[in-house]
Design goal:
The complex is a heterodimer.
Chain A: H1 4-7, H2 26-51, H3 53-59, H4 68-90, H5 97-115, H6 117-120
Helix pairs in contact in A: 2-3, 2-4, 2-5
Chain B: H1 5-33, H2 44-79, H3 105-111, H4 118-131, H5 134-149, H6 152-155, H7 157-187
Helix pairs in contact in B: 1-2, 1-7, 2-5, 3-4, 4-7, 5-7
Classes of the chains: A mainly alpha, B mainly alpha.
Chain lengths: 125, 191
Amino acid sequence: MATSSEAQREAPPRGLEEHFEDKPEGPISAAIIAGGIGAVALGLFTTLAAANESIKDWLDLKSSVGPLSGKTLYAVIVWLVAWAILHATMRTTQYETRRAFTIAMVLVALGVLGTFPTFFEAFEP
Amino acid sequence: MEFTAREWWGVIHGMGLGALFLLAFAGGLAEFHSLKAAEITPEGIVRRMRRLRIGVVGMAIAAWGTVFTGTWIVYPWYRVGLSASGADEFAGCAGAHVPTETCSPRDFLLSGVSGDTDQWHKFAFEWKEHVAWISPILATVVAFIVVYYGTNLIRHERVRRTAITLFVMAFLFAAIAGAIGAFVTKVAPVK
């Protein structure tokens, strides 16, 4: 029985079948959710740096760049680690991108909120 | 007619990589939009997919290049504290109309010696320097989708639309950062 994901795929156009290879949707969903996790990590590090001097100092990896160096580097690391884990667990699944996209949009919205000065300044001591 | 090394890096960061980003976005979006079974021919499918891959991967590379040069090369020149002298945090900015050797762009904006400029840093630049980093992450997600899923995007409308939405979002976050960067550079250029 076809999954709902497979049912939403059109048949390959006539004469072009050789160019189409069926692939699971799970890796796409993993990448999308991981993107959201990367965004929310950035927002979280930004807000935590504003709220706590110790965290701000910990994120200050290079003095000329300041805490931005740690916020961005650690957010990228969180994103890549999350992607690797999600990819490994979802690579053969048909996890629908609609659900992944909804999750990612919530995470990206939270990430943007966390990077918004009016928001993170509210946590400054 | 010359640029300083710092100005060259500003040009590479904002105009060079920024222009590449825009070109890749425009090309990628056009290819994405027309990636439908009715518009595909046996002769065109390979070339179309190659162009789409170049567009989305190119945009991701340009986005990463932009945030790396911005954060690690140009930003330190913007934020360095030069103006403090004794108890006066902005003594070096006294009388300045633009940033100087004793008044970095950040000092200049925060000092308010040339008008009500502090929010250019406190709100605009603070947001730009962070939110810009969401763009390369989303652009990389889209590049992965295109490279991995390939021609299946033609027959799977929902995934294609999802990828287009993420692609446009990556562009919008970069556009926010780029626009703020351009405005701040008008007020307080890195020299």
